Amino acid sequence: MSDESYPGDLRYHPEHDWVRVDGDEATFGVTWFAQDALGEVVYYDPPAVGDSVTAGQSYGELESVKAVSDIIAPASGEVIAVNDAVGDTPELVNNDPYGAGWLIKVRLSSASELDALMDEPAYRQYLAGLAG
Amino acid sequence: MTDLQRTSLFDAHVAAGAKIVPFAGWEMPVEYEGVRAEHLAVRSTCGLFDVSHMGQIDVTGHGAREFLQSILTNDITRIGPGQAQYTLLPDDNGGVIDDLLVYALLDRFLLVVNASNIAPCVERVTSLAPDGVTVVNRSPDVAMLALQGPAWAKALTPIASPEPFSLPYMEATEATVAGVPCLVARTGYTGEPGLEIMCPAEAAPAIWDALMAVPDAPVPAGLAARDTLRLEMGYPLYGNELGHDRSPISAGLKWACDLKHGGFPGAERMQREAAEGTPDRLVAILITEKGIPRGGCPVMADGQQVGTVTSGTFSPSLGVGAALAYVSPDHAHVGANLSIDVRGKEKSAEVTSLPMVDTSPRKEHHS
Q: pTM of the predicted model, to two decimals?
């Protein structure tokens, strides 16, 4: 398992998903908080390249031994890549949630959706509120 | 919301980094380091579980054996002093109030029951007890630790006397562990060799701490690993595989029902079901592709639902999805090709033999 961290260069969705934006493309994954809550990930059910994902809706599932979790898209677009390494080695999500544990890459259809997401300080404040 | 109870080991769990969850009215450790690591430690070395939430009911008095013979399914006359037996407490219709271990001890019979069923068991046994037989619920005063795995004896050696290593499977004796007088038994629900340790609740932390301090200390293991370990063995869990809605026969527990003598509530139904068959039967199923079955998932064959998953998980030992399910007899044979509908996606699956993991060839590590 990795140590708790929330990189400053990401934007965050309240369902504990992150997005790293690079022009009109973006990488999605789940946050340290999400993987910690889920426990050791043993299965990743990804979307297919070419699928559409919609902000706020599930695009796949992560499963631990005990639980299933929908993965929520922080923004809308078309899937242009799926991290097959996570399919083979699901615990990458636990060990490196912001790096090797990324889940999909998306061509964004509506960049303005990103404005609704939290930055790192806001997400940390949000997590503190959940703990309270 | 009712107040949740804590075992006397609660602080030890928190100190060990446990994730605590509500379970059957208790705040219990679901996992520490992680369910997979804990599960594999129990299969390869050993783990330590707090099962103090389980119930202990003493039955004493003249005629206690005959009384228990009349209300439990298994043949209690087959166990003598110091021996334990898996049995079921049936309701009047042959449904199951609980599955339990009964111990024949020198001075009493001891029923060890599921945490969620302490009250129904006490009520049932008390209501049927004849004059002269006394039923006492000792659950609040007794703690229970389960040391499970092939290296259990190595972990226990430095702190136990006499060393209970020659104790046969399913037998109990008195021993001193970490200075505490205990009842220890070669029982457990993981499929691995091991020992269950019963002691006064307030003394359990001393035993826990002593076991964690030995050179070959067990891994603290939580309820999640307990569940995956029992599922790999095909052991039923009350509320999933067992309940008032079916007799033990369809669950494959005919071996724990003395149908030859009968005489207990529901015996005639069980005898009939054993002779004529049941509408469905409990089987073990492995997914043959990626995917994890969960309780409630439909079991399919040729596009028709032929059963329902009662327990499903990722098997840490096998690395695939594994399930227990009730399926129609036509599909209940080992090797039957089925599929499981996992949230709308059909996953190929096959009925497998039990136990799913063979724990028999390995020797216990005596030091």
A: 0.92
